[in-house]
Design brief:
The chain is α/β, with parallel strands linked by helices and about 625 residues long. The protein has three domains: about 5-290, Thiamin diphosphate (ThDP)-binding fold, Pyr/PP domains (Rossmann fold), CATH 3.40.50; about 315-470, Thiamin diphosphate (ThDP)-binding fold, Pyr/PP domains (Rossmann fold, 3-Layer(aba) Sandwich), CATH 3.40.50; about 490-620, Rossmann fold, CATH 3.40.50.920. Helix content is about 40%, strand content about 15%. The chain contains 26 helices and 17 strands. The strands form three sheets. Strands 7-6-8-9-11-10-15 form a seven-stranded mixed sheet, with helices on both faces. A five-stranded parallel sheet has the order 1-2-3-5-4, with helices on both faces. Strands 12-14-13-16-17 form a five-stranded mixed sheet, with helices on both faces. Helix 3 crosses helix 12 (about 255-265) and helix 8 (about 200-210) crosses helix 9. It binds thiamine diphosphate, 1-deoxy-D-xylulose-5-phosphate and magnesium ion (MG). 1-deoxy-D-xylulose-5-phosphate binds near residues 344, 415, 419, 422 and 472. Thiamine diphosphate binds near residues 116, 144, 147, 178 and 390. Catalyzes the acyloin condensation reaction between C atoms 2 and 3 of pyruvate and glyceraldehyde 3-phosphate to yield 1-deoxy-D-xylulose-5-phosphate (DXP). This is 1-deoxy-D-xylulose-5-phosphate synthase. It comes from Brotonthovivens ammoniilytica. InterPro entries: Dxylulose-5-P_synthase, THDP-binding, Transketo_C/PFOR_II, Transketolase-like_Pyr-bd, Transketolase_BS, Transketolase_C, Transketolase_CS.
Length: about 625
């Protein structure tokens, strides 16, 4: 890779001529495919953003200028161009290069991201701060068409209209969210794309008018007129009417064209949207053909595009997917909602079977919650399938629109607990706390794949809000013979022994079984209880067990604060039961990237660490 080898630190790209730049783009693509095929990562979005990132690096000076990526999953070329190329062997691994921008990783990463639709708000903050502090740097936010379906983007645009100094918003439009993009804004972008033919004409008119003594006034007049001529001159009218200049569309794989438009953009005194057209997966045929599959991928074979490790057993998402389809067959009042995660949540199967009862609302979790509340208020049974960390976006909507009205919305919460390589932004470690505190909310978690099926059936028929949380990855197939009927607020005793009683939540039951066995090997007896319900708590079982044991241990893959363990502790205290309690969960910290096994070991949530700690605690009694 002759050209890429010359790029060792920020701003090296500026020494290249036009031909070398095009060669560099090819070499970066090859580098991305070669590395991500080994480590896994967000391939398709990065392949599409190569030239776009290069153009930004040619126009900016890093780290002085500020580049803010939306979601941040497409920032790999930026990392390569800012001295992090050699760390790509460790991408998304424990202690390695993050898959998202990280201020702690480089001075060239201005803002941490991972969740969608934040970049315009953050960028606007940078731009306003620049003015107040009397500084001088460019501020550029890069947001995808998918991320632009999130409400925060509109709130920020609305706010950006007041800005009198330059702030560039690059809209990277590849017609895709993870799957096809949806909604009215996406249709609007499609219309803008077809306005491409007018672009030269439009920029010609704009720049000629700008040169006239009162050119800016003439442009403003045209913007104010109701004439249909305006549509011809100003295709991005929606932005222009909000007081934000629109430039584009421009071919996002043509560096020269992008530089030309960016040179115009930096002259605008205010917020300016530069509409860039790219192809997701560009340059690697399997990713061009299947951009959703290669959005985020595990290691794959470059030649065939096939994953190196074939899934042997169902994961929880597969179980949810097939049970939802069956429930849909049996009950026409069940409807499904996703916020742009039809693939990841497994709702694709439901969508294919019942397209009229399926809603992809875009990356709009807050809206999805209230929309589900509306469906429920009219007698339907909505299931909102969502990743745990993304549901954080809907906190007030769950309180205000669902729980206060006691509406029967089922929250099918996937990726609960530690998720692994995506790191701290994506760990689903807060849901038990923030959901348990809400009056009227029922919170449950299955111990294995059969229990997920039973709980889902139970939840959709329950007359109130239910949160059902399950984890990323292979569904546990142990404890198959324990299938006591689901009953509100009732937990399930697995092993009835003495001395120590271990209460575990959902996914952590697999670890709890190992802890039980390890304790046995070390000569300790251990009763094992599958909590099933984090709320309401099974106080009957808890109190009875506490009175019969010397020590209670709780195990959850959630932060300890406000989690299951603290509920158990509080209930025992209120009842005046003095049994010793050890809580196992996530201490007050964010958990970095790594495999789930590595992370559990690092935070003391693996079977061996839990066993050791229980023994230490028990021996002190
Ligand atoms: C709040 C939130 N919801 C969902 C996601 C999952 N997610 C990550 S990328 C993505 C699609 C983004 O599409 P776009 O912005 O167009 O970027 P592209 O991948 O097409 O480059 C989604 C839904 C997220 N990161 N944050
Ligand atoms: C960037 C993003 O938010 C998603 O692409 C996420 O990485 C998907 O995670 P899963 O691989 O768990 O579906
Ligand atoms: Mg997109």
């Amino acid at each position: 890779m002759a050209i890429l080898d010359k790029i060792n630190q920020m701003n090296d790209i500026k020494d290249l001529n036009s031909q070398e730049l095009n060669l560099l783009a090819e070499e970066i693509r090859q580098f991305l495919v070669e590395h991500i095929s080994v480590t896994g990562g967000h391939l398709a979005s990065n392949l599409g953003a190569v030239e776009l990132t290069m153009a930004l690096h040619l126009i900016c000076n890093f780290p002085k200028d500020k580049l803010i990526w939306d979601v941040g999953h497409q920032s790999y070329t930026h990392k390569i161009l800012t001295g992090r190329k050699n760390a790509f062997d460790t991408l998304r691994q424990f202690g390695g290069l993050s898959g998202f921008p990280k201020r702690s990783e480089s001075a060239c990463d201005s803002f941490n991201t991972g969740h969608s639709s934040t970049s315009i708000s953050a960028g606007l903050g940078f731009a306003e701060a620049r003015e107040i502090l009397g500084e001088d740097y460019k501020v550029i936010s890069v947001i995808g068409d998918g991320a632009f379906t999130g409400g925060m983007a509109y709130e920020a645009l609305n706010n950006a209209s007041r800005l009198k100094t330059n702030f560039i918003i690059v809209l990277n439009d590849n017609k895709m969210s993870i799957s096809e993009n949806v909604g009215g804004f996406s249709t609007h972008l499609a219309a803008l794309r077809t306005a491409e033919a007018y672009q030269d004409f439009k920029s010609g008119v704009h720049s000629s008018l700008n040169k006239l003594p009162y050119g800016d006034r003439v442009i403003r007049r045209i913007q104010k007129t109701k004439s249909s001529l305006k549509q011809l001159l100003i295709p991005g009218m929606m932005f222009e009417n909000l007081g934000v200049t629109y430039l584009g569309p421009v071919d996002g794989h043509n560096i020269e064209d992008m530089l030309r438009i960016m040179r115009e953009a930096v002259k605008v005194n205010g917020a300016v949207v530069v509409h860039v057209l790219t192809e997701k997966g560009k340059g690697y045929t399997p990713a061009e053909r299947y951009p959703a599959k290669f959005h985020g991928t595990a290691a794959f074979d470059i030649e065939s595009g096939q994953l190196k490790k074939v899934k042997e057993k169902a994961d929880y998402t597969d179980v949810f997917s097939s049970v939802m389809k069956k429930i849909g067959d049996q009950d026409p009042s069940v409807v499904a909602v996703t916020a742009a995660m039809a693939d990841g949540t497994g709702l694709k199967r439901f969508r294919n079977a019942f397209p009229d009862r399926f809603f992809d609302v875009g990356i709009a979790e807050g809206h999805a919650v209230t929309f589900s509340a509306g469906l429920a208020a009219q007698g339907l049974k909505p299931v909102f399938a969502v990743y745990s960390s993304f549901l954080q976006r809907g906190f007030d909507q769950i309180v205000h629109d669902v729980c206060m009205q006691k509406l029967p919305v089922t929250f099918a919460i996937d990726r609960a607990g530690l998720v692994g390589a995506d790191g701290e932004t994506h760990q689903g470690i807060f849901d038990l706390s923030y959901l348990s505190m809400m009056p009227g909310m029922t919170v449950m978690a299955p111990k294995n794949k059969w229990e997920l099926a039973a709980m889902l059936r139970w939840a959709v028929n329950f007359e109130g809000p239910v949160a059902l949380r399950y984890s990323r990855g292979q569904a546990y197939e142990g404890l198959k013979n324990y299938h006591q009927k689901i009953a509100l607020g009732k937990s399930e005793k697995i092993y009835d022994e003495s001395q120590i009683a271990l209460f575990a939540v959902g996914n952590m039951m697999e670890t709890a079984v190992k802890v039980h066995d390890l304790l046995k090997e070390r000569g300790y007896d251990c009763t094992l209880v599958n909590a099933r319900f984090v709320k309401p708590l099974d106080t009957e079982m808890l109190f009875e067990t506490a009175r019969e044991h010397l020590m209670i241990a709780t195990l959850e893959d959630n932060v300890i604060k406000g989690g299951y363990g603290e509920s158990v502790m509080a209930a025992l205290q209120q009842a005046g039961i003095q049994t010793k309690v050890e809580m196992f969960g996530i201490r007050d910290c964010f958990v970095e990237q790594g495999s789930v096994e590595q992370l559990r070991r690092a935070i003391g949530l693996d079977a061996e660490s839990v066993t050791e700690q229980i023994i230490r605690g028990f021996d002190q009694i």
